[in-house]
Specification:
Number of domains: 2
Helix content: 25-40%
Shape: globular
CATH class of the largest domain: Alpha Beta
Radius of gyration: 19 Å
Strand content: 25-35%
Number of helices: 7
CATH topology of the largest domain: D-amino Acid Aminotransferase, Chain A, domain 2
Largest sheet: 9 strands, mixed
Amino acid sequence: MSYINLNGKIIEAGAAGLPVDNRAFRYGHGLFETMLVQNGAIQLPNYHWERLMGSANALYFKLPKLLTQAVLEEEVLKTVRKNGLEPLCRVRLQLYAGTGGLLEEGDSHAGYLIECFPLDEQILQLNEAGLVVGLAEGVRKANDLLANHKTSNALIYAIAARQAKENKWNDALVCNTAGNIIESTIANIFRVKDGQVSTPPLNEGCVAGVMRSYIMSTIKVTEIPLTQAMLEDADAVFLSNAIRRIKWVRMIGDKEYSPQAVQQLYRDIFP
């Protein structure tokens, strides 16, 4: 039996319910953090809380005064303990807007939902079999004031992920409206060329990933727009997120990449 945390109350997962006029359900007006908990502690917590609170402000969330960072962290760990997943798990913390229409005033206070899921320790290791990745077609992500946030409005990623499943890819890459590659459905993307590591800048429209920030604080990374030609010319490519750390890409389309450069980078970032 699994348990969730709905606004501070631990309940069985199947018993959860929200009002039908919830704004996250109606309009995708919500945001979320996906965190790794290991040995009872949130990994990279400062990165997560800084992003979450910044995104809450950007989405005009009105948080209850008592819903502080410290309270949210304790609620996350309480939920993890209730599910007996302290050794290793993935936590999804979602903030959602209150009730009402686009212009109507309803309950303006945001709520939260915490879920946690067990993980295998292998997910933390560099993958031996490289990922096979393709390019999503027919969807483009705008570089607007919401682009860098992990919002609940994820239809572009859902469609791209569906294309990945249909094509038997491990993931799909997403382009911005200029046609540059900015990320995958669940991760940031990095290119390695002649020993130099680069990643698309935030003004290209990618999510401001927690692991992206950590990698850039650990090794030298240049921020530069990523064209399809640059991707085809790369020596190596890897994806990153807070749960999977980094995963090397073996193939994109007809282009194959070597794992050696990513293997060394993994050792440098996670000694």
